[in-house]
Specification:
Blueprint (H helix, E strand, L loop, with lengths): L6 H7 L4 E3 L1 H14 L4 E6 L11 H12 L3 E6 L3 H4 L14 H15 L8 E5 L1 H4 L4 H8 L4 H6 L1 H8 L6 H17 L3 E5 L3 H13 L6 E5 L25 H9 L6 H8 L4 H8 L3 H16 L2 H16 L9 E4 L8 E3 H7 L6 H9 L3 E3 L2 E2 L6 E3 L5 E4 L3 E7 L1
Parallel strand pairs: 2-3, 2-5, 3-4, 5-6, 7-13
Antiparallel strand pairs: 1-6, 8-11, 9-10, 9-12, 12-13
Helix pairs in contact: 10-11, 12-15, 12-16, 13-15, 15-16, 17-18
The structure holds one RNA strand.
Length: 402
Amino acid sequence: MGFVPDESFQEVTRGAVTIDTEEELQKKWQASKDRQQPLRIKLGVDPTNPQLHVGHAVPLRKMRQFQDAGHQAVLIIGDYTACVGDPSGRDKTRPTLTHDQVRENAETYLQQAWKILDKDRTELCWNGDWFREMSFLDVIALCGRTTVARQLERDDFQKRFSGGLPINLHEFIYPLMQAWDSVKVRADVELGGTDQTFNLLLGRDLMRQEGLEAQVCMTLPLLVGTDGSRKMSKTYGNSIGITDSPEEIFGKTMSIPDEAMRDYFTLATDLSLSEIEEKLALNPRECKGFLARTLVRLYHDEAAAEAAEQHFVQVFSKGGIPDDIEEYAVQGDLLEDGKVWIVKLVVEAGLSSSNNEARRNVQAGGVRLDDLRVDDADARVELSDGMVLRVGKRKFRKLKLV
RNA sequence: GGGGGUGUGCCCGAGUGGUUAAAGGGGCUUGGCUGUAACCCAAGUGCGUAAGCUACGUUGGUUCGAAUCCAACCGCCCCCA
């Protein structure tokens, strides 16, 4: 049968690294059209971290594209799987969370996810709903559906095993749980990062074992972090949070390496492919500025995007000070003869975490009062109301005398 | 159950009795450079105004002196069963 991919099919497959298998997806797509029945698109998320970043947003955006093409989004909150911890791509066992923590995280997670997904057209499930019901015997039966050899084929376990690092038994169960989710929700397509390949494919096996039509697995690239090398992750400190302030999103985006811009455009924004090419043809600074504005607009709005850019130009390009600075009310007992020890001031204002650190900052020439460098760590300085204290390029406090 | 290893600062990792607050790297901070909060370069990086204090899994010992030796305990890894 000659499948003619329509525009939304192209949109929905764009950016995918692998589709297992594309033929099956075409078939499902066509059947869905013929029968007027939307495909069920599954995305499972473990709310291990309440802070979503633009890397997490990649599969969510993909899900949104499916929604826009008229398909049924099935978002699974892994309240049980989060308690196990996904071993994918990890070189050590994930710390497990308590169920209460997970429920709490899930709350904030969802709030953020609805910035991307269309809430009214999303079917929301908690996998605890079915795992809670299972008896120990059921669990054992589930474990019997795969083998140790298959588990050890995985590159991450392989590495840990040969490197003498621990693999806890419960980590073997994780993929089975995720695969079982697919059975329970009768997924037609499951989305995930490339690191999810193993888990995704196991879903196909279990579905077949259950006599269901196997899901299609679509893997998406992992977005690199702001360092341009490792995948975006909060623990690497290279992430851009979708709840970050406009200034932060803008600044962090400006700090990505030029080579990463294409990935960011294709994976993290909703620009069309031709628009992306157009922007990439600009000079790198303008292009990156556009990218930064686009990201801010996505998670805040147009006005915020403009303000963030102005802030960036003001503070970093011109080295000036921003308009709205957090105030610090100088405590009276810091003053001796109307003067204050610079080190103490920096610490009390919350710009350094210890006296020694503050002293270092001063000695390195990173501390300024109203643009005047203070580089003597013993200095006692006179203050006036409204003075701006600055540490490094990006930490400011407006001093308020009481 | 038997045997062998191992546990160091935010992370990785050197260090087997004394100038060790502890090499080296990563990270981070500050400075310089820059279109950039990137790259690169440089410096710094336990706490304390200071005297000094705290730190090498835990506890207790040996010693003038221990991250370094001993004992027990706790955690982890490997091999054999």
